[in-house]
Design a protein that fits this description.
Blueprint (H helix, E strand, L loop, with lengths): L6 E6 L16 E6 L13 E4 H5 L3 H12 L7 E6 L5 H14 L4 E9 L2 H10 L4 E5 L11 E7 L8 H13 L2 E5 L11 E5 L2 E6 L3 H10 L2 H9 L5 E4 L5 H12 L7 E2 L20 H8 L6 E4 L8 E4 L2 E2 L2 H10 L14 E4 L5 H8 L4 E4 L7 H5 L5 E4 L3 E4 L7 H15 L3 H12 L1 E12 L1 H14 L7 E2 L2 E8 L2 E2 L6 E2 L4 E5 L4 E6 L7 E11 L9 H16 L1 H5 L6 E2 L1
Parallel strand pairs: 4-5, 4-6, 5-10, 11-12, 11-13, 16-17, 16-18
Antiparallel strand pairs: 1-2, 2-8, 3-7, 6-7, 9-10, 13-14, 14-15, 18-19, 20-27, 20-28, 21-22, 22-25, 23-24, 25-26, 26-27
Helix pairs in contact: 2-3, 2-5, 7-13, 10-11
The structure holds alpha-D-glucose-1-phosphate-6-vanadate and cobalt (II) ion (CO).
Length: about 575
């Protein structure tokens, strides 16, 4: 039992909980444990992310979980879904949270077997079980292991990330709390065996981690048709789970249900440290998959997901699909999938995501929404039936089937397009460019900068915004520069300072913002987007094409001089 120490009082629970001799029933005392003051538990873009060592400090995780419970006062008797991406400290955290949920009066916790649930699977379970909420233990694409990252995220009853009103309430509670409640038992709760058990008045149901999710996918996509494609000797694919949570889901989906040959899924065993890599599906961190798709005898199709399974990267033979184009392709082909045929209401993208999807939406006469970065801004648009698809440049796309982005869903969507059109990945994307023009896109990240330095660069640019109009960038000029402010069209809430946008006269854009998911210093992200529709200029080198924008933004922020780095850490 962790905790800074002093037990304030014990509440003896009278029921021994084991009257009929059922196994797994544990009797309980509740203890209230004092914690120290924490000022650093403000959730970021996607939950609270810290080094594992911070979460392991006695009382730190407990304090934050208690703050979550305080922010949802209607929890007594309600159902909570609990699971994580399997990273280091996942299992210990599950034990603590189960004991705290019991002590705080939750009625039931549904936990993924062995503590495993991908983010999309958890979002689905919240909806299916009509739970009040869910706790996801993940730091997503951040590396795992004793020296790396851990995270805790709370999702609400629609299955989506808690909106800012709740994350701010969690933060407020975390600043005023001085104690947490936990069942006073040393007993290890068995989360390996599927079935129900009691922890005093609370039921713990250990459920199969993958079955409900796969059944949901079967309800969306035509599995017979997909199976014909994956069994065909004319089509080959590789899916790289990067030793993260999607391994078991992907084995079950592609190999078991859809009949792809064994070996289609690689790195399919989830490891606590993701095999030492970054579970981040992009050209840098999914290098082995990229090498395979660009090598000799490359398969027709390649895909990968991140630590918690909500991101996707799509590759064709010697071809990389920008996530912005991936979203546009999905919208353009939605009618090929019976589930979405004639059902698409609109689309939303995060502000830094390219305008490729806007072009498709305009063509289809669909509304398009531009939201701040992070999935929490999409939820109420989906609930209100204003949008059907959402996406972000950071390799995330999803639909109203849940309220999170969904990596394997996106892969099945792409496979469905290929099965229907019989076109290659490269042909599908090239046709999109021919029809709408190409939005060349790239993101440059300067990671782990000293926080002071990064904020200074941002505020320096903010101060100059009003003077930028009319300035030359390459062979075009700045039309407008602003600091993105979002007013939610559903609940009217306002989010300020969501990133600097520089709009150029030819539809191109430069965006910069600070990341809200890192755990060391500050990460400055630059997003570059250049629109070209000349038919002879659709297949140019991305970085060369964006060079004038890059030079301008680097000059404006002085990022290279200030950080003393000549190159960004990651280019996607
Ligand atoms: C990043 C991405 C953002 C994404 C978020 C969570 O946030 O840019 O688009 O929603 O990660 O994704 P930031 O604040 O670091 O830019 V996940 O898959 O890490 O939960
Ligand atoms: Co993720």
């Amino acid at each position: 039992m962790s905790g800074l120490g002093s037990v304030l009082h014990d509440d003896q629970i009278c029921n021994d909980g084991d009257a009929d001799g059922k196994p797994g029933s544990v009797s309980m005392q509740i203890k209230t444990v004092q914690t120290k003051e924490y000022q650093d538990q403000r959730p970021g873009t996607s939950g609270l992310r810290k080094k594992v060592k911070v979460f392991q400090e006695p009382g730190y995780l407990e304090h934050f979980v208690q703050a979550i419970f305080e922010a949802v006062p209607e929890h007594p008797g309600a159902t909570l879904i609990l699971g994580g991406d399997g990273r280091y400290f996942n299992r210990q955290a599950i034990q603590i949270i189960l004991k705290m949920a019991a002590a705080n009066g939750w009625g039931k916790v549904v936990v993924g077997q062995d503590g495993i649930l991908s983010t999309p699977a958890l979002s689905h379970l919240i909806r299916k079980r009509k739970a009040l909420g869910g706790i996801i233990l993940t730091a997503s694409h951040n590396p795992g292991g004793p020296e790396h990252d851990f995270g805790v995220k709370y999702n609400i009853s629609n299955g989506g990330p808690a909106p800012e009103s709740i994350t701010e309430a969690i933060w407020a509670a975390s600043k005023s709390l001085r104690s947490y409640r936990i069942a006073d038992t040393q007993a290890e709760i068995d989360i390996k065996r599927i079935g129900n058990q009691q922890l005093e008045t609370m039921t713990i149901e250990v459920c199969d981690s993958t079955a409900d999710y796969i059944a949901m996918m079967e309800g969306i996509f035509d599995f017979n048709h997909l199976s014909d494609l994956l069994r065909s000797k004319y089509f080959t694919m590789r899916y790289d789970a990067l030793h993260a949570v999607t391994g078991p889901y992907a084995h079950a989906l592609f190999e078991k249900h859809l009949g792809a040959p064994d070996g289609t899924v690689v790195h399919g065993v989830p490891l606590e440290d993701f095999g030492g890599g970054h579970p981040d599906p992009n050209l840098v961190y999914a290098k082995s998959l990229v090498n395979t798709l660009y090598g000799e005898d490359a398969p027709d199709f390649g895909a990968a997901s991140d630590g918690d399974g909500d991101r996707h990267m799509i590759l064709g033979r010697q071809f990389f699909v920008s996530p912005c184009d991936s979203l546009a392709v999905m919208l353009a082909h939605a009618d090929l999938i019976a589930h979405y045929h004639g059902q698409v209401k609109g689309v939303a993208r995060s502000m830094p995501t390219s305008q490729a999807v806007d072009a498709v939406a305009r063509d289809l006469h669909l509304p398009i929404f531009e939201t701040p970065t992070g999935w929490k801004y999409f939820g109420d648009l989906m609930d209100a039936d204003r949008v059907t698809f959402c996406g972000e440049e950071s390799f995330g796309a999803g639909s109203t089937h849940i309220r999170e982005k969904d990596g394997l869903w996106a892969v099945l969507f792409w496979l469905s397009i290929i099965a229907e059109t019989q076109l290659s990945v490269a042909e599908i994307v090239s046709r999109l460019w021919q029809k709408y023009g190409r939005y060349y896109f790239s993101r440059h990240d300067y990671e782990s900068l000293p926080t002071e330095e990064a904020s200074q660069m941002m505020s320096h640019v903010r101060q100059q915004l009003s003077d930028l109009e009319g300035k030359k960038v390459g062979d075009t000029t700045i039309r407008l520069a602003d600091d993105f402010r979002y007013q939610d069209p559903i609940d009217g809430s306002v989010a300020e300072h969501q990133g600097i946008r520089i709009h150029l006269a030819d539809q191109s854009r430069i965006v910069m913002r600070l990341s809200g998911t890192g755990t060391t210093g500050s990460t400055l992200r630059f997003y570059f987007e250049r629109f070209i529709d000349r038919p002879d200029a659709l297949h140019k080198d991305v970085q060369k094409t964006l060079q004038p924008l890059v030079e301008y933004a680097y000059g404006l922020t002085q990022v290279q001089q200030i950080s003393q780095r000549t190159l960004p850490d990651v280019i996607t």
